[in-house]
Model the fold of this input.
Amino acid sequence: MQTVLALETSCDESAAAVVLREGGKINLLASSIASQVEEHSKWGGVVPEIASRRHLEALPFLINKVLIQADCKIKDLDAVASTVAPGLSGALMVGSVTARTLSALHGVPFLGVHHLEGHLASVFLTKKPPKFPFLVLLVSGGHTELIYVTEAGQYQRMGYSHDDAAGEAFDKVARLLGLPYPGGPAIEKLAEGGDPFRFSLPKGRVSIPGGGFYPYDFSFSGLKTAMLRKVQSLEASDKSLPIKDLAASFEQVVAEVLVQRSFLCARDQEVKTLVLVGGVAANKRLREMVSKEALKEGVEVHLAPMQFCTDNAAMIGAAALIRLESGVTTSSLELGVSPRWPLDQSDLLYQASPPF
Ligand code: KG4
Ligand code: ZN
Done:
């Protein structure tokens, strides 16, 4: 039995959670999130300086709350974990310094967690977690990646976006349509009443210099430009914007691209389990399309639970527990934070001499 206090401060959600591994299962004892979304939405996106300050203000209260809820003392924990990469440096630093301070004061090991490993671990907060090997479609505000996971901590990136991440495309197109930040939920709500097949939009492909296309890679910047042109030409015609149809058509094409390339990869690699995680995994159209295709293809699908799609600390705690189970004991207290770090190098976060 192992218990971890986890902190997440990589972007615009301050979060703390206490998770427990018992009999091979990961259970959530307490989780709390202080979202800063409303404050950032005034600026149309995340303001790093504001994010860091709000994390500083929120974290002590969140930690106190989850420890009381979980009926847990810091000295009895098996580790204190925090996200250390990738993300906004100042924001990451708040969680990391807090976790390292608690670790040093109470003599509890510190674990630095890769944010994407956290997203991946969100499917282990379910009654029936996936069995290795599996293919993960990770779609968030900063990343769109297809990752083949052979065993815990062993990652092979099969595809990725060469420009905007899927969530970033939702956010930018939402701004174009005059919708608030974050764009994903706003577009989804509007799209419910729209015609997803009214406008035909490009499914961006990435060319290979010698000819052809990378089969599992993504590009969303052309789609964003196509949306801008559509909006401009519709505005020029002086009619009111068919905003619901625009939102629905955009959401449909993003979901189609993600589904088609993920299942092509699964088929080619003969992987029989597909996992969907990250903020964009909260999108209902995408969830439905993935589930439908999985049924057709005979693929087992694991969707991240809705409450653990967007950033939270429970998933960071789950990733820490999986690392502890695989034999990791601690990260160095000298491990800092990094705005970028490849997922397949996350083993280095547990080395005696840290990589950053
Ligand atoms: O995973 P996440 O909380 O943060 C990052 O690690 O980036 O993802 C946030 C992203 C934002 O771009 C947001 O617009 C998108 O996820 N998102 C959605 C939905 N909910 C959040 N996109 C589409 N549909 C949603 N329901
Ligand atoms: Zn995230």
User: Anything to note?
Assistant: DSSP finds ten helices and ten strands in the chain.
